[in-house]
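Narrative summary of target 7.
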Amino acid sequence: MRMTGAKDAVSVLVIEDDNVIGQHVEAGLRSHGYAVTRTRTGGSGLAEAARLPIDVVLLDLGLPDMDGIDVARQLRDEHPDVLILILTARSEEIDVIVGLDAGADDYLVKPFSLTVLLARLRAHLRRRPPAPEGPGEPVRIGDLTVDIAARRCRLGDREVELRPKEFELLAVLVKHPGQAVSRETLMARVWDENWFGPTKTLDVTMSSLRRRLQAAASAAHAPVALPDLTTLRGHGYRLDSPRSLDGN
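Modeled conformation, tokenized:
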């Protein structure tokens, strides 16, 4: 994500067809120094994202031309580093989970206050990718290699494409192999120390990370030793050595 200073404002694309909400959000963001572009349809939003350097997308799910979930998926595929916050009147948990699993980083349920929106943006934009420690040597556990400095993940000889938050979550866990890492620690390091949004975001990101690693293992030409991402109920997660390496 491009982090900006006073002379280079954070660029926000608002995809919202409701004029009242859209104008309110646009005016509020501009008054706080953000550079804002607003569109009213999914198609025009995708076109603007392809044309402009965008840091953040505020995406309404109820668009007139296409489902916002499909827009979120396409944005994530084409712009992996863009921060996506979905704006939704769909308060059911399943709708929120689908949105997060489609690639969104966070969500706000309508009606929401501008103060909360601005706070969420500040929390996300403060977040930096984890800095490499020591010489920045890649970490290898079983056949999984994570190069934090280069932001690359390999399983055997296969490159594994991860979304930004998935990689950052894995990067925290590989620094502490075999150790329990609490939900609070993961939320602070991957999202923000002052995070006050839904912790369901962590579970959705972990589920997606598992699926990507398991898909890479299944696609490998030869068996690979994939570490286990173990859920510790009521606490957090732990990265365990592959069972095959333990002789089990």
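Residues 200-219 form the longest helix (20 residues).
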